[in-house]
Design brief:
Helices cover 40% and strands 19% of the residues. The protein is an alpha+beta fold. It has a four-stranded mixed β-sheet, with helices on both faces. The protein starts with 8 loop residues before the first strand and ends with a helix. The relative contact order is 0.20.
C-alpha cells in the first residue's frame, strides 16, 4: 500500500526511525493509501524534505486531500487522528 504513484499522501521517512514507524503504523491502521519516500540518512543531505516542508527532519507527511504539509511525529499523529480517525468521526456526527 505504500509505493504507488497514485496515493494522495506522501510520507517522507528514514529507515529504522521509531518516530517514522509510529506514523507508518497509524497510516496502516486507518488504511490510508500513501507513497513512501525514504530520505538520506545524513541530515545535511535531506534537501528534498527541506524543499517540501522547510525542515530536514523526518517524518514529514504531505496530504494532497487537505493540502496539509506537516512535520514532527506527534503533530502528524494528532492530525491523522483528527482528520481520519475517531476524532474525525466525532466531529462528523453532528448534534445527534
Amino acid at each position: 500500500m505504500n509505493d504507488t504513484d497514485d496515493r494522495p499522501i506522501t510520507f517522507y521517512r528514514l529507515q529504522g526511525c521509531p518516530f517514522c514507524e509510529r506514523v507508518a503504523r497509524l497510516l496502516e491502521e486507518y488504511e490510508l493509501g500513501y507513497r513512501s519516500r525514504f530520505v538520506e540518512p545524513m541530515h545535511s543531505e535531506r534537501d528534498v524534505v527541506k524543499r517540501v516542508a522547510g525542515v530536514r527532519t523526518v517524518p514529514v507527511v504531505v496530504d494532497e486531500n487537505t493540502g496539509v504539509t506537516m512535520a514532527e511525529s506527534a503533530n502528524i499523529v494528532d492530525y491523522l487522528e483528527s482528520t481520519y480517525g475517531e476524532g474525525a468521526a466525532a466531529t462528523a456526527g453532528g448534534d445527534d
